[in-house]
Amino acid sequence: MSSHSYQDLVAWQKAMDLVTNCYNITENYPNSEIYGLPNQLRRAAVLIPANIAEG
User: 29 and which of 14, 23, 38, 51 could share a cystine (Cβ 3.0–4.6 Å)?
Assistant: First the structure.
């Protein structure tokens, strides 16, 4: 019997790529925005793979 993990799911892998891309893009936002839009975008992106993992 093989064991499968949420990490094997293509959807989770793509969601993690989205998180990485989101962090890379929002790195260039001005410091005055650090607790505004970049933070909100990052939290929203992280929720996607987290919700997939919760299943």
Answer: 38
